[in-house]
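Handout, tutorial session.
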Amino acid sequence: MFGRRVVILISAIGLLGGVAHAADDPARPYREPAPNYLRQFAEDDAKVFLLERFDANGRLVTRSVDKVSGAVSIDSAIDRTIAGQKIRLRGLTGCPTEKVIYNRRQTWSCLDAVRDYAGTIYNKRASVILCKTLVLLPDDDQALPSSCFALVGGQGEPFRIVNDDDSMVFLGLAVIDRTPGGLSRRPDLEGTQALSQSMGFQNAE
């Protein structure tokens, strides 16, 4: 299933190249990377999937690198299957309504809109995909709670990062989950969600 797989154990390699890569992008869980950080992993003949795991102190512990041989599966507003790995966008709830406003004027099925947008990013535009998660492993049948980013651009277009978490919330295709006490599970996306609501993307029904 995996065309190529490399696992870098940061604690074992000291000052070798993997640590240099980590230094280019501050090793803090979930921080959006710079385009140049992902460009160093790009390959001419394949899409590349990086999975980075961080410990509770924000230190990069492992990085796996896989070639993506098939399509990325968009399983729901917050679920992806990338190179055989199940991913769930952390702290979000997908499809707050069955119908959403898509392209600012059209009413779409939420899931259809998700697959149109995310499918285009992951399968047609991305050259490198990065998902960040904590080092703790869920059960085998559970998805990894992650934040995911895609490098798009090239061939005359500037390279930039598409933040999957932020995009799903901005487009009204996902909303921030809350703790039982009502606290936000994604305070970093509260501004994005407020902007989405003010622009009328959500609650098409």
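The second record follows below. Compare its token runs with those of the first.
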Amino acid sequence: MKLTIEHKFSLTVYLWGVITGIISGVAAAKIQYGWLIGLALYLLVDKFVLAVIKELPPEVPNEGAVRKKAFWGWVLFWLYFTMFSYSLMISFTPQCYSNQSLLYKMVASGNATVTCNLTPVG
């Protein structure tokens, strides 16, 4: 299957979002403002895209327009993988604030594989 240049462009932007998201999540688990590292790596998206695909789609007229065209695709993948890798790094455990919550009922019935710390409120 041959990919068009537009698809290569999109997949490359998404890949850069995944890479920077994982870097952000791991860094945020180690230092307070670690997520800013991945955010700063967005500035290199044009270099990464051009290094991988070597040419630009017709709707991206020049190298300067790569960041603008890639922003939303990159930011959604970056945000998702930042939160995902951060949650894995800190060994996140959900908190159940009520024994009437759906999560608590799922855990108590054995339908969920996570543990739930019951924290009474009030």
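Points raised in discussion: The chain has a mean pLDDT of 89.
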